[in-house]
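Quick one:
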Amino acid sequence: MSVLRAVVLIAATMATGLAAGVFGLYSHTIMRGLGGTDDRTFVTAFQAIDRAIINPWFMLSFMGALAFTGLAAVLHLGQNVRAALPWILVALVLYLVAFVLTVAVNVPLNDALKAAGDPDKITDLAAVRRAFDEAKWAGFNLVRTIATTGAFASLCWALVTSGRAN
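Output:
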């Protein structure tokens, strides 16, 4: 395996694994923990978490998974390195599902909750929380978790396949 192909495939695998971990953490810990809180705590904490997650480390994994996986697919188009290509393409499709859901569903819900403003100035926190629709957010996050975990597993197998081909 060429060094560039190997490095890109490893980067894709690592970034995708990190993204899967973030989405999984939301599913099994963050949303469950926030679900049992009062409306003020939920709105305040979720707004703070959503502001904090937009940072270079998260963006590197979230955007990097897509970019590195796409680049890995391109680098595996050659005749002698195609054994891993199907697994990389599966990972790319699964990650695209998660990416599109993030942009189309979860981020707009996050943004609407942030747009509600300072929780200390919101007169009806229960209405803001209902409008956020925790069940919808969590349901789509579960799909993101499953998709990114599947993408991670596919990339792990692509690494194995690439190693066997050489």
